[in-house]
Design a protein that fits this description.
Helix 1 packs across helix 2. The chain is α+β, with helices and mostly antiparallel strands. It has a single domain, classed as Phosphatase 2c, domain 1 (4-Layer Sandwich), CATH 3.60.40.
Length: 255
Amino acid sequence: MKISGSAITNTGSTRLSNQDCILAGSWKQQRSMTVPYRFEFSEPTGHLVLVADGLGGHRAGEYASETVANTFLSLRPRLKGSYELVEFLRSANRTLYELGAGNSLLEGMGTTVAGVVCLSERLIWFNVGDSKVFRFHNSVLHQLSVDDFASETHIPSLAKPALSQSLGGTPNFHDIDPHTGIEQPSNGSKYLICSDGLTDVVPIPYIEQSMSHSNETAVGRLLDATLAQGAPDNVSIIVMSVETSAPQKHEHSSR
């Protein structure tokens, strides 16, 4: 299985700083970009792509997202299956709370996260919060990730409900229940990993249409569309495609 893709993160039009952090293999970026980064995994065992979206309005959101990305970078060789991935995410959650407990400037910091672990014959997607993972196959976009919204706290005047879970993000420790699923992709399948800075302002039909283009073109179109809508939030977009030697079936499970 061969993985290739393009990735970009951008501050947007109204935020003063970028609290998103993105990861593709050993490459990490948090500074605002205008040109996509291209990546390729010819032997994808243990590689991963990730979007971490630091919580806006919280202290040190950018530090939280980068901390999670750095932790994945240091421990990714251990990610061999869903169990290790879930335990790793729970450990990263504890780390953010421990850092906050030791430094008042970091107290309450948090981040959402979504990504894909690339193994030799399968992919494992994961998310906590409202950053998203989509599969694009046969011209159809399908969301794999599960949005963690606390619907009971939704106030009609607000654009969206509050998050029900994230990594960190609250004054006192809360454990998390990460969402994961296994994919055995068909040849030509594509995946979109993004922060809500994209999906909150760009309609799904346009995202689906853009995914039919090359990875780099799709990323560029989606960023341009976000900026054209005013880009009120940071936005991170990763599009990756899969080449396999033989067609495979999709398998989907979620915690």
